[in-house]
Design brief:
CATH topology: Undecaprenyl pyrophosphate synthetase
Radius of gyration: 19 Å
Mean pLDDT: 94
Distance between the termini: 48 Å
Helix content: 40-55%
Number of domains: 1
Order of helices and strands: HEHHHEHEHEHHHEEH
Number of strands: 6
Structural class: alpha/beta
CATH class: Alpha Beta
CATH architecture: 3-Layer(aba) Sandwich
CATH superfamily: Decaprenyl diphosphate synthase-like
Low-confidence stretches: none
């Protein structure tokens, strides 16, 4: 085991040394997928799988800090997941609440809840807002905590917010239709004011977005990793960065 760790460490250092600092992402989105399958593969119950996944969040944020990432978006719970049986959903929400509280207590990162908080139980929404308030002045990595998040819902919420804003100004539908452009909608997204994700990582071998950052990821690069999220290691993250750095970004062309 000692030799294996030595070789593993040497490999990590080589990967880090070869990363071009001018070709690293500013914003990384992560789909933390595979907790339940990890639990099944390891003879654990579902809650233990979700807890193992939660335990891997802080290390990831540390890795992002080390390479100068400015924004991380973590998809912890989708709007579809809210339809899971209460026996699974309730423990998952408690795990998320505890994990977010722990991230806030560290004082290292600025937390920003994104998602349809009105669809969440009141206690969960309160805990997320509390974490955001507690870290509002932290000068560190910005971490979007996506809970009760769905890409289609986000776009619908953005359009609704935009319409309400213009209605309050007295703008007519005809005037709005004439002036409407992409930026008008972008200004009302959950991530307004942030750079779009340069790199989106999904663990567990699934190769689909599933509704994650649908609007923002139009020009993102994607990296699909076979490891279940609880098994996602530093070396896996470095490989994702290497793959990103090696690509020629075309931005839709």
């Amino acid at each position: 085991m000692g030799l294996r760790n030595l070789l593993y460490g040497a490999y990590e250092r080589r990967l880090i040394a070869r990363l071009p600092q001018d070709r690293l992402p500013r914003h990384v989105g992560v789909m933390l997928d595979g907790n339940r399958r990890w639990a099944k593969a390891n003879g654990a119950d579902t809650a233990q799988g979700h807890q193992a996944g939660a335990d891997n969040i802080s290390p990831l944020l540390g890795w992002c800090e080390e390479v100068g990432v400015e924004v991380v978006t973590l998809w912890l719970l989708s709007t579809d997941n809210l339809n899971r049986p209460a026996a699974e959903l309730t423990p998952l929400l408690r795990i998320i609440e505890t994990a977010v509280a722990g991230l806030a207590a560290s004082g290292r990162w600025r937390l920003n809840p994104v998602g349809a908080l009105d669809l969440l139980p009141a206690e969960t929404a309160h805990r997320l807002k509390e974490a955001a308030d507690a870290t509002r002045d932290v000068d560190g990595l910005l971490v979007n905590v996506a809970v009760g998040y769905g890409g289609r819902r986000e776009i619908a919420d953005a359009v609704r917010s935009m319409l309400q804003e213009h209605a309050a100004r007295g703008t007519s539908i005809e005037e709005l239709a004439e002036a409407l452009d992409v930026e008008h909608i972008a200004e009302h997204l959950y991530t307004k004011g942030q750079p779009d994700p340069d790199l989106v990582i999904r663990t567990s071998g699934e190769q689909r977005l599933g509704g994650f950052l649908l609007w923002q990821s139009a020009h993102s690069e994607f990296y699909f990793c076979e490891a279940y999220w609880p098994d996602f290691r530093h070396v896996d993250f470095l490989r994702a960065l290497r793959a990103y750095a090696e690509r020629e970004r075309r931005f839709g062309s």
